[in-house]
Amino acid sequence: MNTKDREEKIANILIVDDIVANLVVLANMIKQAGYIARPVTSVKQAMQAIEVRIPQLILLDISMPDMDGFEFCEILKRNPTTRDIPIIFISAMNSVEDKIRGFNLGAIDFISKPFELEEVTMRVNNHLKIYRMQQELEENNARLQKLVNEQLDKIAMEQKNILFAMAKLCEARDNADGRHIENVGKGARLLALSLQLSKKYEKQVSDSFIECIELAAPLHDIGKIAMPDSVLLKREALTDKEAEVMKTHAKIGADTLKTIYSAGGYNDFIRMAIEIAYSHHEKWDGTGYPLGLKGEEIPLSARIVSVIDVYDTLVSKRCYKEAFTHEESMKILNEESGKSFDPGIIEILNKIQKQLKN
């Protein structure tokens, strides 16, 4: 081990006192105790010394000409870089008021002048030991938190994989072309990004909202996994009874996602997926299902996904229909503006339709 490495392992103690004689006495005591002494005569020098190397302990005089120890202690405790450094006041001032003020500012101890070698050594040793224990505890907590976060990320990823597998299964049963859920996720992100740039929606659409909707949107029809083939794959128009059965997929999907969310509610995208699954068939004019919500009663995420879902369904071939052109699909969406869809969202959609088409 070289000299620099050895010095890194030995505690360095900053001593701040404008009286040189006191610095000499304390520095010798600190060296005798086996530590590195760093004596300075002013707060300015102390700040410079701290910038060069953070001390493990500061011995700080109270009575100094430019700035007293109390003020300097207050500055150090406000700074995130220095607030955890233990500070011991050194002073001939031994009044109860001074000690209370020092402790309130964050000091850990007082050493009175004149200095006694045994007292200084014992107090410094004890407080350095406590400081090291605190540092080790913080490091262990940080390592533990990292492990916990890694496990939570792993669980979250497993949840996402399971949910997307279920969504893909629903899509396969629906005889789709295999790209619908991906298209809805990408389209919802594109539309949300565009809404973020508009004055009407910018406060509602944060960066986290955009990230969540891309993950949540593909799960909008996850409730269809519970639909019977006779309803889901029927080529002719559904009967009233069959239509009522099909409508239940919204609640079934939301309830399924709620079960997953309750087991690991730290996933914001699942919370959004719940509102999308439940409300993406609501209509702006209140004629949708399952609750007949109207206008802005419908969650914004569901209003976005409902537009993208219908668009992708229109331009795609299904077992019950041929694909419409982009132009035909946009015409249908515009005709439903203010009826099925939020007119503000349709207005933005018209501006980005070339990107959507690509």
Could you explain the architecture of this structure?
The chain has 358 residues and is an alpha/beta fold. The protein has 2 domains: 3-133, 3-Layer(aba) Sandwich (Rossmann fold), CATH 3.40.50.2300; 152-357, Hypothetical protein af1432 (Orthogonal Bundle). It has helices at 3-9, 20-32, 43-52, 69-78, 96-105, 117-173, 180-196, 207-216, 229-232, 240-263, 268-279, 300-314, 326-335, 343-351, 353-357, and strands at 12-16, 36-40, 57-61, 87-91, 109-112. Strands 2-1-3-4-5 form a 5-stranded parallel sheet, sandwiched between helices. Helix 7 packs antiparallel against helix 8 (207-216) and helix 7 packs across helix 12. It starts with a helix and ends with a helix.
Question: How do the helices and strands line up, and which of them pair or pack?
Answer:
Elements (H helix, E strand, L loop, with lengths): L2 H7 L2 E5 L3 H13 L3 E5 L2 H10 L4 E5 L7 H10 L8 E5 L4 H10 L3 E4 L4 H57 L6 H17 L10 H10 L12 H4 L7 H24 L4 H12 L20 H15 L11 H10 L7 H9 L1 H5 L1
Parallel strand pairs: 1-2, 1-3, 3-4, 4-5
Keywords:
358 residues; alpha/beta; Rossmann fold; Hypothetical protein af1432; 2 domains; 5-stranded parallel beta sheet
Strand-residue fraction? 5-15%
What is the radius of gyration computed over CA atoms, rounded to a whole number of angstroms?
34 Å
What's the story with the biggest beta sheet? 5 strands, parallel
The topology string of helices and strands comes to: HEHEHEHEHEHHHHHHHHHH
Low confidence ranges: none
Q: Averaging pLDDT over every residue, what do you get?
A: 87
State the CATH class of the largest domain.
Mainly Alpha
Helicity level, as a percent range?
A: 55-70%
Helix- and strand-based class?
A: alpha/beta
Number of helices: 15
Q: What is the CATH homologous superfamily assignment of the largest domain?
A: Hypothetical protein af1432
